[in-house]
Each structure stands twice: as C-alpha cells, then as structure tokens.
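Q: Could you predict the 3D structure of Leucine dehydrogenase?
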Amino acid sequence: MSVVNSLADQDFEQLSIRRTEGGFASIVAVHDTTLGPALGGVRIRKYASDELAATDAMRLARAMTFKAALAGLPLGGGKSVVNADPFSDKTRDLLEAHGRHIGMFGGRYIPGADMGTGSADLEVIGRYVPRVSSAGRDPSPYTARGVVASIAAVASHLGRDVEGLRVAVQGAGNVGLGIVEQLTARGATVLVADPDPVRVEKAVESFGAQPSPLSDILHAEVDVVCPAGPGQVVDHAVAKRLSAVAVVGAANNMLAEPTVSAALAARGVVYVPDFVSNSGGLISCEAEVNGVSDFVDRVDRIGEVVLEILDYARVVGVDSDTAAVSLARRRIAEFAAA
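A: Sure. Here are the predicted structure tokens for Leucine dehydrogenase:
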C-alpha cells in the first residue's frame, strides 16, 4: 500500500516531507489531534528508502493517537523521522533543519526524544518550535515502569504474581535495563539479550539477570517475552515458535504486521499492545510539557488499562490489539461528541 493510500485509509490529518540541505528526508506525521496537540518522538534512523521512513513515521504516529487516548491524556498522535544515520549524519545543521520543519506546524506537533535523539538534540530543535518534551526529564524510567505494571497485570490475569515469573527481555538499553532492574527487584527471573555485550554484562552484574543469545531470546522457555529494542520483531514465524504464554514489551510496533495479534490469540498467548504497555513514557512527557509533578500513579494505572483491554477482548471475542484500538477510538469519539 502506498503512503498516499495509507493517509486516506487511516484518516491521517497531515504528512509533510522536506529535503534537508544534506539530502536527508525530514518527515513529520500527524495522525489525529481531536484530543489535543500531537506529541511524539523524533526518530533519526537510516531506512532503506524514504518511503519506508514515511511509512514508519505514520505507523508510529497512529499508535501515539491510541496510546494517548487509552492513557487518558489530552494529546493526539504524531511522530517525526529523519532518514539518516544517527551516528554519522546527525549534525546541528540537520537538527536545526528538522526543527524548522516541525516549526511549520505551529505547535500542532510537540516533539520528544526517541531512537537516535536525546535531550541535547531536543534543546536544538526547541529553538524553532513552541514546545518540546524530553528536554528536561528522561522518560525511559517511566516507560520501563509502565511495562512492568503491564507484566504484573498479565500475571494477575493468569492467576500468577511477578515473583517467580520467568521473563525474557530483548534489548538492554535505557528502557530494557530499567525493566530488568524492576523485575528482578520483584523476584522475577530475567533472561536478557542485546547486540551490545556491555549492556548484557551490566544487566547480569548489576541486577542478576541471566544472559541469553540474541537469536534465542524470543523463543526462550519463559512465561513472558518482552521486546524492548527495535520494532517488528514478532512475526508469524516467531508467534508459532513462542514458548511464552504472554508478550508484553516496550518496543514500538513490536508486531511485524497487525494480523500477528490474532495469531497469538489463536494460540492462547496473551498480548498487550505496545501502545498500552509502553505508555509510561508518554505520560511522563505530557506531565513535563504541562508542568505536572505528580504523575507516577498514572503510570502505575497502566496495569488497570491492560486488564480492561483483556476483559473487553474476552467478552467481545476479538484479539487484544483490535480491542485496544476499539476502546481508544470510542474514547476519541466520545470526546469529539461532547
């Protein structure tokens, strides 16, 4: 499906693509602003084509719409992407060019940190836009906290407790390492894998995790698989081989395609949509933008949202991704009609 067809089929409000002086594609996608301005991270990543970069921006923006709605936030869904290598191509000129592009939206899109960007980058971009998030507070610990709350909710749904669970965490970056720390503190046994052996070593030495080969982590003999690195890692082949009874992660767009959710449900595997489980970071960003200091209890309530979605999916007879999107769309429609 082309980007143009996706815009119409998924009810996107706006997609803007500009070329920087260095020839890199600067892409801003705004999916829906019914609930408020779109908030989403700035992702700098090298894609095989600008078409793929735009498609990813749109997928991520759409997920942000549902994430904000289910978290009860006055925000819409947006995302921006620069098709460039964050290590060799990211310069101040590139960030300024992307900032000027975002500035054309007049505040309808609020940028934050994402893959390939951090608080220092947001400070540069912030010179050209009305507001940014993630410039003063790292959302990673709250993303991790929300994922662990989601795992705890799934454990309760299965008649279990976090203590004694076996969890496989794929990715030991800022969020993944936070998940490992919190799970081990609650008595879970955690397997961890990451392309960077230094990260794995830190998880093992600091928090007592068990190392696992990266190629085996999604098929490990565990209760829960937790993708916390790149997206699109759970495809139909992985779904067929899973030993885990649940998939709960931090990675955005962790499913390779939407139909994998139904495949997991058919196997009896509990799946929590990533735009629910990883929404703690967005809650933190919204609080930062609006000057709210007391927000951690809202992150902890992500578990209640998870249970609501799983119960709705069971009653209606649909997979959890379909249930979550349905509930999110309902909340947006109710707000628009009020």
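Q: Anything worth pointing out?
A: The two ends are 35 Å apart (CA to CA).
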